Amino acid sequence: MDLFLSTLFSACLGATPAPAPLPPVPTPQQLAWQQMEFGMFCHFGINTFHNMEWTDGTKDPKTFNPTECNPRQWVEVAKAAGMKYLVVTAKHHDGFALYPTAYSDYSVKASPWRDGRGDVVREVADACHELGVMFGFYLSPWDRHEPKYADPPAYDEHFRNMLRELLGNYGKVGVVWFDGARSEGHVYDWDSYYALIREMQPGALIAICGPDIRWVGNEDGVAPDTLWNVQERDGQQVWWPAECDVPIRHGQWFYHTNGERKLRSLAELLEIFYRSIGHGAVLLLNISPDRRGLLPEADVARLAELNAVISETFRTNLAQSAKVTASNTRGGDAAFASERTIEGRPDAYWAADDDVTEAWLELDFGEARTFDRFAAREHIALGQRVAAHRIEIPDGDGWTAISEGTTIGYNRIHRFPATTARRVRLHITQSRACPTIQALGVYKASPREAAAKE
Known about the structure:
Strand order of the largest sheet: 5-4-3-2-1-10-9-6
Distance between the termini: 52 Å
Order of helices and strands: HHEHEHEHEHEEEEEHEHEEEEEEEH
């Protein structure tokens, strides 16, 4: 039942109607992607065999020969780490295609790998579909090998032909990932690319150089403290959520033989987690397959460490055993009561009356508890609303802030020194419309977080 009908149905029963959506709001596909939170990027190709990030389209395809190539391992590692989608480089700037395209001589067909009959994209897609990880591909618009690149209309048709292959031959596609590297001054027919994707894979999200997901603006994997999903594009306000992309090895998207010394520490990855997912963005962490065609053991081990610490930190939500109250409840209706914030359901949320833009939600644990993380989540299906908020604990007859922030959006995780209190509350001090909060969480960080920083 869509939002309009459910609101009408509730009104007919005499129940309090839900808050009106505050447009723009996410599409169902954007909302589902946001809920994934964490994905894996796999840069793999001719560059992998030359210790280079960018090659110029002249490297011999015979140098591409991953002796133990196993894309299923990539997907298994991603799933074990809590990553919900995987994006593979079907073609990078060098023009070398990881699948046997009919439109270029520069592909796996010309390599000795699998006697020229291999298809990396096929193996990734099949593993994703089998293991329940959303499949996506990166197709670089820039092409340093293809002669047609010098003729924009001819290249547009060439590029669309490659898109047709990838969209039509590999099952369901969740994300098509474009970027604009070194494309200044080159004219692309973006609208025709988007139209083709909408026609062939209407559920696919178009990322970065696209209308559905935007680049956060850096390759450090961090989102700003204030993160609005509502953005201006082409003179209109649109829902355009941010993705943070970052390599697990400093400055290295592709595998390098000396790259292990640049592997990020656990402490660095935790900082990235809190400043991306913890700021309401989605994190796309790049792990490069090596020349065997496997994810390196050291990188896999570091990713497992990260997952273990995050899982331990957020395993026990103290809020779920607390009594929840609110300064205001929409229509006094139990359908929007404060207790909805600890039910753990995406369709359950607390809401305030329409004329309320400042409100608080209080958690009472019944006894003093120690915590150092506080998480909040808006019901963004109705739009993003909160512009400023504080986390407060009792202080004599009043309350004192232990952390402050601006936006909440899909997710906001506050970190602060260990605090012991019986009560804690989320105080929304500014909102674009009546606030709607879907979830609250109170946690104590894993001891391994502190150990990682030592």
